[in-house]
Amino acid sequence: xxxxxxxxxxxxxxxxxxxxxxxxxxxxxxxxxxxxxxxxxxxxxxxxxxxxxxxxxxxxxxxxxxxxxxxxxxxxxxxxxxxxxxxxxxxxxxxxxxxxxxxxxxxxxxxxxxxxxxxxxxxxxx
Length: 126
Fold this sequence. Notes:
Muramoyl-pentapeptide Carboxypeptidase, domain 2, globular, 3 helices, single chain, alpha+beta, 18% strand, 5-stranded mixed beta sheet
């Protein structure tokens, strides 16, 4: 649509780019946008299976934003490959049990779940 913000680009049926970006941070480079598209598609599968909205608390982070929130220096958020999510109507531990077979990184926290699309399986609690 003419004049539409690139931040509003629809990545999947239920996710648009702005959900993965923070405030007025600049648009990430194309290789990060590719990762965000891959991540959004993985999250879309979860959303379709659960038939519940997924809220992205934190997606792509610039180095400055990652530092400000105390993120790990090698965080997958920096490459657009991670999101901290909340599933509407589901406590975080229930989401984490549902995602037990997630093929990438899965971080279990009290009030949210970290998912990333790293090439190997990783698990941790925060």
